[in-house]
Write a structure and sequence with these properties.
single chain; about 5% helix
């Protein structure tokens, strides 16, 4: 039996016996589903001799599809695929249980059941159907915390999941916090190992064994300053070779009205700088202004094929501001300009490739009174090979505590520079939500969405649909957090 199945069985047994052996427990259940349609592309070909000249001087199929001919026996093209319908549904559950007979010991578990109820069964991410996201025992004492089981780790070196242990110690005298962890890693952005058949698109490039992950973090927390340094490595147990080795530093600090955040990480395995960023913010009661710079470089483990393509980083500078113009009106805006590093490749046929771009967004929020709120946003983006412009707006009506209604709409246009298939989307929808004291929540959403793919041949396509979404959340338990606080007593002086 795998470790995942052992953890699932342990959590299920603990949940079943909670009222009998636990002093307190909390359970949260969330169920949601949606109905959506989409259309992709289907690759096709014709014999080269069947291609005919088009009005714009190129070649096309007899029924009007533009083709790509490379001098071989066939010419290739894409035609719009069939309309596919998906009904993805998920039920997730979270359990927290404490008072297990050992002081400081608690159980935490989060899992979900997912599936596509549509006839086409094409929605991604629905395999495996039962997924354990977290499931661990947590033991806390005055200066340290220990955890064992499946855990999600968040840090500057990207979030990751693993099955193993996590230890944390706080040395308050020195304002220092030390953390160490290790175990068997999960796939990137997945709740299964990279070797799991659910990740079959990687085929033979997937590792055969689960990677071993280990890392440590040291933090210095003093007044308004938080400085952290982390080291992490992943090892392939088949031949004990490194598949990842990275380090990172981050900081967060505030002095009066100024706030500074930033950090950087270094890819030790490949010997180059990864991501880096710095943001400075000036905060005032009526407004705030931020300016920053960042560098982004895609990261891939050494076992993957993607690193062979030598992805280049880009650098960017940005600025943003928020102004509370009146007691009911708030304005905000953000702009960024970025540039890619030289890829050092030959482009003789297109000597002046674009390597930089920019993006700008702005918006306003108006809180008219306790019941009505308006929000609107507009944005532009221009980059290598494509651009985009969008606008959206919403109106929220809150007739009473826990009940709200929203009407929203928007449009997005994304013209492409170096290929056909400009895309335009429009949507108009409504949402209703009812929430009762944080323990129960019910919501439903319906939207009319249109998707137009424009191109000057028969490959143009159009798809309009109603998208339906809904969900229910219920929380219950016997936790002390639900017990009313005792009456306040005045301090004796």
């Amino acid at each position: 039996m795998t470790l995942s199945r052992v953890l699932i069985a342990a959590c299920a047994l603990a949940a079943w016996s909670a009222p009998a052996i636990a002093q307190d427990y909390r359970v949260r259940l969330d169920a949601r589903a949606q109905a959506v349609s989409f259309r992709g592309l289907v690759a096709d070909s014709i014999p080269a001799g069947d291609a005919v000249p088009s009005a714009n001087g190129g070649l096309e199929t007899p029924d009007g599809f533009a083709v790509r001919c490379g001098g071989g026996a066939f010419c290739y093209f894409f035609r719009p695929g069939p309309e596919l319908r998906g009904v993805p549904a998920t039920i997730s559950a979270s359990l927290a249980m404490w008072g297990l007979g050992v002081e400081g010991l608690a159980l935490h578990a989060t899992g979900r059941v997912v599936g596509d109820l549509g006839g086409d069964d094409v929605w991604p991410g629905t395999e495996p159907s039962v997924q354990l996201i977290e499931g661990y025992l947590d033991y806390r004492r005055s200066i340290y915390i220990a955890r064992a089981g499946r855990q999600l780790l968040t840090s500057r070196l990207e979030p990751m999941g693993y099955d193993g242990i996590w230890l944390n110690a706080r040395l308050d005298k020195y304002s220092v916090e030390l953390t160490g962890y290790g175990g068997w890693g999960l796939g990137q952005a997945a709740v299964v190992a990279a070797s799991n058949p659910a990740l079959n698109p990687l085929d033979e490039w997937r590792p055969r064994d689960r990677q071993i992950v280990a890392g440590a973090e040291a933090a210095w927390l003093y007044r308004g300053v938080d400085v952290r340094a982390e080291y992490r490595r992943e090892i392939d147990p088949e031949d004990n070779s490194f598949v990842s080795e990275r380090s990172g530093v981050s900081f967060h600090g505030r002095a009066r009205s100024f706030l500074a955040t930033g950090g950087l990480d270094y890819n030790i395995a490949e010997g180059h700088l990864g991501n880096a960023d710095l943001t400075l913010t000036y905060l005032r009661p009526r407004y705030s202004v931020s300016a920053g710079a960042r560098r982004y470089r895609p990261y891939f483990s050494l076992w993957t094929l993607w690193g062979a393509f030598s992805p280049v980083p880009y650098t960017a500078v940005n600025a943003s501001a928020e102004l509370r113009a009146t007691g009911w009106l708030s304005l905000h805006a953000r702009g960024e300009r970025y540039r890619y590093q030289d890829a050092a490749v030959s482009t003789a046929l297109v000597p002046d490739l674009e390597d930089r771009g920019w993006r700008v967004t702005s918006g306003a929020t108006a809180t008219l009174n306790a019941h009505w709120m308006l929000d609107a946003n507009y944005g532009l983006e221009h980059g290598p090979g494509a651009s985009a412009r969008f606008a959206d707006a919403s109106v929220t009506f809150t007739p009473g505590a826990g009940l709200s209604f929203d009407v929203y709409g928007g449009a997005l246009a994304r013209p492409l520079e170096l290929r056909y298939y400009d895309a335009t989307s429009r949507w108009l929808g409504a949402r209703a939500e009812w929430q009762r004291s944080g323990q129960q929540r019910v919501w439903a959403d319906v939207a009319r969405v249109s998707d137009e793919r424009d191109r000057p041949d028969a490959g143009a396509s159009s798809l309009a649909q109603f998208r339906l979404r809904g969900g229910v959340t219920v929380a219950f338990g016997s936790g002390a957090d639900r017990t009313p606080l005792p009456p306040a007593r005045p301090l004796t002086r």
